[in-house]
Amino acid sequence: MENKTPSILLTNDDSRDSPLFALAVETFAEIGTITIAVPAAEQSWKGKSMTRKGSITVEEIEINGHVGWSISGTPADCTNLAVHQLMKSPPDIVVSGINIGKNIGAGFVLASGTVGACLEGNIAGIPGLALSQELTKEDFFFWDRNRRFSQETSESLSRTVKQLVPKVWKELIGNDLDYKTTWNVNFPLAKFNNPEIVKTKLSNTFYGNCFQKKESQWEFALADARIDNSPGTDNVVITSGNISATLLDLTKIGI
After folding, report:
1. pTM of the model
2. Of 232, 254, 247, 21, whose CA–CA distance to 119 is shortest?
């Protein structure tokens, strides 16, 4: 990969309208040649699931001046379709995110569509970089209600992303794209200045009821979660104001 401009496939699980995805497009366009393949609608908590039944539609879109595809499927669908069908040649890396909200701990990482898109790339022999941004509860719920951030939050996140993405790329990826693994990276709250990148392990996460009844139906409503805060775990690192980087290696799963 030395002296070669990397080919980067960009996707996410928050959908094509995510303001953090638009920032990712803008930022990674300065790092390599980008291709966009993004879910048409939000696909959070879909993990590495794929659409086995039914059909998928692909629509050409433009984000920040870059043409790509909006796909009516999961993040893993987006990766698979782009790698094997839509792109002229496979990318050097799959970058997923920047997710709206952190992806820490085994329970949440396994559920994450952001991470799932990268794992689908790993199966195809392509490394992955899954990026997530911790938010205050107020900012997260503002996004959930309005599908945008306040101007103040947007400006703060823009400064943070443009500073930290190149730093993460340089330290974790650089010109070395031979390892078919995924780095799961979480950025701390934007209030922290000059965070360091700390390599971590996944914390253990436990949660109970995920649904509430509304009339005769059930809707997703995660009530609470317990997160292990042992030293060296991802949540401890971002809580302290640093960037957590956890290596996910599919070759080490199983016996």
Report:
1. 0.95
2. 247
